[in-house]
Amino acid sequence: MYYHIVTYGCQMNVHESEKIAGILKEKGYEREAPLEEADIIVFNTCCIRENAENHAFGNIGALKKLKREKKGLLIAVGGCMAQEAGKAELLRRKFPFIDLIFGTHNLAELGALIDRKRLQRRAVVSLSEERAETEDHIEPVRTSYPNAWVNITYGCNNFCSYCIVPYVRGRERSRRAEDVLREVRSLAEEGFREITLLGQNVNSYNSDGQGGMSFPELLDAVASVEGKFRVRFMTSHPKDFSEELARVMKKHGKICNLLHLPAQSGSNRILGLMNRRYTREKYLSEIAMLRSLIPDCPVTTDLIVGFPTETEEEFEETLSLVKEANFASAFTFVYSPRTGTKAAEMEGQIPEEVSKERIMRLVAQVNENTRALSSLFVGKTTEILCEDYDEKRGLYLGRNEAGRMGYFPCDRNCIGEFVTLRVERANGVSLYGTLEDS
Ligand code: SAH
Ligand code: SF4
Ligand code: F3S
Questions:
Q1: How close is the Cα of 79 to the center of ligand 3, in Å?
Q2: Which DSSP category does 377 fall into?
Q3: In this structure, which of 11, 92, 102, 383 has its CB flanked by the most CB atoms within 10 Å?
Q4: Prediction pTM value
């Protein structure tokens, strides 16, 4: 028996798919296989923007024929879209062949739900408002060696007015620091070389008092674990970023000098409507503080264009922020109204043509920054953690501390090694070159 998991959305979901794989293995499914060969297909969905949902709907619908032809095939849909109000009913109506629907709080029960489905004809639906069971006992099937992901918080309390995450992931809960540290120690012993701490807002770790220490303290403890590995963390919220955290970053060579700090907009009026609880000036002063401790520390961000009532001038403030903050790269999004959020009810929704034109200009500005920063590496050496081999190009690849992807030839399998790349040319976020002393 084989499984196949289709993952949409953020890193959190990617890691949860590793946990889903762990549960399936425990249930006797041997390994991941191509879609057509699988005995169970799990869709781990996302609902952050409309296109994420459309994507999943399209892919689930395409299974109708396979499901009819293959007796015993189980189809399960989980994740954020399954948890969204009204979506489970819609899924069952549109795709009556779905066997199992489970929400974001029901992941740990997946094994029991599969057993239940085997005993009944109709679909099993399990959607709780709160997480009943912790996930600490699940042994994930880690598929991204040498990288590993570690949850530190679940859920989000911020209620940014455009965002559905607090509705589908529930209130913020912190894992106990000792459990996080135990996991990090064992990953380091197993030879993982990059460990990324995950949470919607890592800076507010321990807001419920369940963690046992603050985020800077946790990061300090994680980076003090013995072993040769890098530490990354995401996502940081500008309202909670602190000098104490920047000092911990500076203190440890293991912690990558790179900060992902979503700004969302460069306009104070829009930031207010977004309920982000900081200003452009506060944002800029935080990265100035960081760069006073870690000179030229690269900062990456997320930006939204076309938030309700955004004017041309306000959009231009986002454009100018890209230059002023000197972002190393940015994820750029067209605002997508999400039913149930405050922003979806606001007057002044922006026409699609206007948003499309704005995002093109924003992407052009971001690309200019990306190119300028990548070109700084040309002619220099940079340390790369080799992650993979690209068969098409015949090159190994991996990222440097600043998240730039490096490509290079190598005559041995160097996946999982830290290597020194002499950069000969750059293209976008990619660097090309040869290895020193290899
Ligand atoms: N917790 C993180 C990431 C949330 S989702 C944070 O607070 O930054 C990742 C990104 O998706 C967000 O940063 C935001 O830029 C974008 N996003 C969220 N909701 C959106 C929406 N309704 N429309 C467009 N982009 C959205
Ligand atoms: Fe969404 Fe804001 Fe929470 Fe991020 S911090 S998940 S954008 S509500
Ligand atoms: Fe992530 Fe999408 Fe859910 S971005 S938290 S999978 S809505």
A1: 8
A2: T
A3: 102
A4: 0.97
